[in-house]
Amino acid sequence: MPADTATLDRRGFLKLSAGGATTLALLGAGVQLSGCSQRSAAVANGYRWLTASDIHFMRALVAGVAGNALPADPTAAGAIVDEGVRRADIELAALGAPAQQEVRKLLDLLQWTPFRRFAGGVTRPWAEAGAADAQTLLKHLHDSHLSLLSGAYRALAKIGSTVLWSQTPMNAFSHYPGPPAWAISALEA
Amino acid sequence: MAINDLYSDGITKGWKVRDASALQRGETLEADVVIVGSGAGGGTAAELLASAGLKVLMIEEGALHTSQDFKAMDEFRSYGTLYQEAAGRATSDGAIPILQGRAVGGSTVVNWTTSIRTPDATLSYWSEQFGVRDAMPEDMAPWFAKMEARLGIAPWAAAPNANNAVLRDGCEKLELHWKTVPRNVRGCWNLGYCGLGCPVNAKQSMLVTTIPAALDHGMTLLHRARVERLRFADGHVTGMVVAALDAGSGHPSGVTLDVRARHYILAAGAINTPALLLRSKAPDPQHRIGQRSCIHPVNVSLAQFDKAIDGYYGAPQSIYSDHFLWPADGSIGYKLEVPPLQPMLASSVMGNFGDALAADMAQLPHAQVLIALMRDGFHEQSQGGRIRIDAHGQPVFDYDVHDALWDALRRAYLSMAEIQFAAGARVVRPMHLDAQTYSSWKDAKAGIAALPMKKQRAGLVTAHLMGGCAMGEDRERCVVDSHGRFHAADNLSIFDGSIFPSSIGANPQLSIYAFTARNTQRLLARLQPAAAA
Fold this sequence. Notes:
The structure holds 2 protein chains of 2 kinds. Chain A contains 10 helices and no strands. By secondary structure, chain A is an all-alpha fold. Chain A has one domain (10-188). In chain A, helix 3 (52-66) crosses helix 7 (131-143). By secondary structure, chain B is α/β, with parallel strands linked by helices. Chain B has 2 domains: 6-113 and 116-150 and 192-287 and 467-528, FAD/NAD(P)-binding domain, CATH 3.50.50; 162-184 and 298-375 and 402-449, Cholesterol Oxidase, domain 2. In chain B, strand 9 (237-245) and strand 10 (252-266) form a beta hairpin. The longest helix of chain B is centred in the last third of the chain and has 20 residues, at 403-422. Chain B starts with 5 loop residues before the first helix and ends with a helix. The chains are: A mainly alpha, B alpha/beta. At the A-B interface, helix 3, helix 4, helix 5, helix 7 and helix 8 of A face helix 4, helix 10 and helix 11 of B. Chain A: InterPro entries: TAT_signal. Chain B: Residues 81-298 form the Glucose-methanol-choline oxidoreductase N-terminal domain.
């Protein structure tokens, strides 16, 4: 879908959203009609479940969830973000089919310009977006009291935090010393 | 100090352990008894049946992972390999994440070792409301004792870690009930990583106790194999269709097995057992399969202490409080416990993002968390949720939260915050999207009173699934009889958490062990009248 050609305006979107969770199906239908659905898009090379478009979004999401916890060194930070995206791919590939379908709808919605712009407050496409844009999206979703959007926030915050804070390099920031060294060495002895 | 790998040793001496992902072609397998699932129910039944001389086949959807695989104590690896849907399972609306095991040994491989008997009030409720026979406290006491002895269950003798000590100290200050948690461990190293698989074989999970014992008695264990459906004819199960799973993707490999037995036991847990029956179009004249699927909805309260808590180390659960579990006015009560706080799990419950999450995570060594488990299924509004299947036969769990539960969840936020402040917390934040960080009990009390109690805003989670195939003599309301035998088929039993007619009000594993031991003895008397006499 060419950027910004959909006609759903903010007012229309809010009206549609007032129905709460049931609107996910309607919005999903909108995505289908607009030709933006990734449901049939190819899995990205080297990944199990994410498509190339998803990966742009996931990179922004992981960096956005990390905030100032990422190391200042861009190479080190980039490696953590890349590993986060790889872990998100593993997590999502392992979901049951019904949950995967819901996540697919959500990721498709996030690629749909009217949703990204009016529900998420993000003007740039994800391929050009960064951590700050993902944080704008998360804040919009967090602050909305529509259960559809709160649910989207919960899902994205969980994916972002688990793929990030499970990584050993993040232990320096959290001061988590890791599993007890004495036990590790005893088990290896 | 190397830990013996029970399975490599056992396979060397002749254990029949088969990885279905390696099968190249289909075959027919026959046994006296086939058990679907290898968790608390399947494992307990397997040992008793195999040691009585029956030919037992155990089928497990998950893979075999042993102590060797747990040595790294790595959260991402363990959540990805040992849990249903890589720990991403949730209710159908995503509002309640579900932690449930999926491996040889089931949830017993990853639970936090808490082993509490079914409360007397729960047993009485099942007897009175559902006509469950021979399951009053005095009937069940010998079965609890038997399984406590089998699995080394005893109150934790070491000091609680600081995370649990907060619950004890707060309760002491406020003169509330608290107790030491009985745990199923032998030779525990007090590491704190029970949820990731015990690296030292101390946790007396099915993986290291009953399943090895059954294998010693000749049982065959087939793992990475999913039961697609049971075949029913004339009130009888005539066979089972089993799909071998590909080791990499977890999807069916294309190899299918035909399984036949004299008797069939479903022990796949309270989501997968009802889903399998629904997929199999099991006889269910009253449409009760999958109904009354209860959980303990859990909410969470995060505190920060000036002192170090280091909640990632030490037995994860060693103190609990039942002070609020059975309110005198009949409202829904809750049990208070403590979770482990390794960073991946901790970050997922904090519920925020960016610099705010980073600030919370930077304080991880000072973080302390309480959880409250709501007692679902006892109140008139509390009928549990419903397991159904989608068009492809996959389980879907619909679960609504009604006003009586929201009322209990709000009271629980209050109790947890009060206890945390009483124990010396610097600040407390209920895990709710609209909550603030409160620096006094007075502020917390006012803040919590104003929180909108809505799905997704309140952070909920569960690890306890109960119901969906309720036991009892009333065929209008119950799927199995008081001893787990399927009402509508004579050679089918259900031995897992799905038989409980409500939630338990305690962590489920010991309830499943005891009911399964009791029900297996009854089954043995039917299958082997001479041996049982």
